[in-house]
């Protein structure tokens, strides 16, 4: 059947993604209220009872706001590394011991025929990670909330059939925006968020012809726009000699207020 997924919500107001493969349905993060998570699941004809577990990228509230409530309601195991567990356990409330599962950075975990791998990213959190998903020859990579794309991250996400990659902000919009300078400096730093230009530069280095779609994720509502992100990322790629036809590679949108359509990796 291949890997299928939908980005339920992406942005500073909350993040959650569903990945299906090998007969298993997993959620990445639950950064919205439990009620909102359920609404988004319903929009994609899903029920909480179908989810086998929740993978956590890091402990910031836009990734764990509803984590404890969703996990308790459906009796779901939570998978996170030791650093993230230590940083978030006071925020998510009581979780039964058998549902507190440590998945250390770099480890693999098999859910039937779906294999999950975490990899380290650069962000101002305790031990932030991205995730790779494998089924057979198919690969889906998810990497958001990273200040820059290191060589190790490039190696981790290269050759993904489909990639979910952060394109958080337009640099000039951020510089001219209403945030205080300390916040701007944090976002622009190596442990902040990835700009449109940086996302395009990374893509220009890692695309090999296998990656057919990249979803631009975690867009700032104050310092980015969907059309601008797509145009800027493509422009940054072309500036570095990476040209492509839409029939060969597409940039796709994510949204803070609605899920993306279901996409199937094996059809890329």
From TrEMBL:
Keywords: Hydrolase. Pfam families: Lactamase_B_2. SMART domains: Lactamase_B (SM00849). Residues 13-191 form the Metallo-beta-lactamase domain. The keyword Manganese does not apply. The keyword Cell cycle does not apply. It comes from the Bacteria. It catalyses: 3',5'-cyclic UMP + H2O = UMP + H(+); 3',5'-cyclic CMP + H2O = CMP + H(+). GO terms for molecular function: hydrolase activity. Counteracts the endogenous Pycsar antiviral defense system. Phosphodiesterase that enables metal-dependent hydrolysis of host cyclic nucleotide Pycsar defense signals such as cCMP and cUMP. This is Beta-lactamase superfamily metal-dependent hydrolase. It comes from Paenibacillus sabinae T27.
């Amino acid at each position: 059947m291949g890997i299928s997924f939908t980005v339920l919500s992406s942005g500073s107001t909350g993040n959650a993604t569903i990945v299906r493969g090998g007969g298993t349905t997993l959620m990445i993060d639950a950064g919205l209220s439990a009620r909102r998570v359920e609404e988004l699941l319903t929009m994609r004809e899903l029920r909480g009872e179908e989810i086998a577990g929740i993978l956590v990228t890091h402990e910031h509230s836009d990734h764990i706001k509803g984590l404890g409530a969703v996990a308790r309601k459906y009796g779901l195991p939570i998978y996170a590394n030791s650093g993230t567990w230590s940083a978030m356990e006071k925020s998510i409330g009581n979780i039964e011991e058998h549902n507190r599962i440590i998945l250390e950075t770099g480890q693999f975990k098999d859910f039937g025929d779906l294999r999950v791998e975490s990899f380290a990213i650069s962000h101002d959190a305790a031990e932030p990670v991205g995730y790779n998903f494998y089924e057979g020859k198919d690969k889906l990579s998810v990497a958001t909330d990273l200040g820059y794309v290191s060589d190790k991250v490039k190696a981790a996400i290269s050759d993904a059939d489909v990639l979910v990659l952060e394109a958080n902000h337009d640099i000039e919009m951020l510089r001219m925006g209403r945030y205080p300078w300390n916040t701007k400096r944090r976002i622009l730093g190596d442990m902040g968020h990835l700009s449109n230009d940086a996302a395009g530069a990374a893509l220009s280095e890692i695309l090999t012809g296998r990656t057919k779609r990249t979803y631009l994720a975690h867009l700032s509502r104050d310092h980015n726009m969907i059309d601008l992100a797509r145009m800027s990322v493509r422009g940054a790629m072309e500036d570095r000699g990476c040209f492509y036809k839409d029939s060969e590679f597409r940039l796709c949108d994510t949204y803070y207020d609605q899920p993306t359509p279901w996409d199937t990796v094996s059809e890329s």
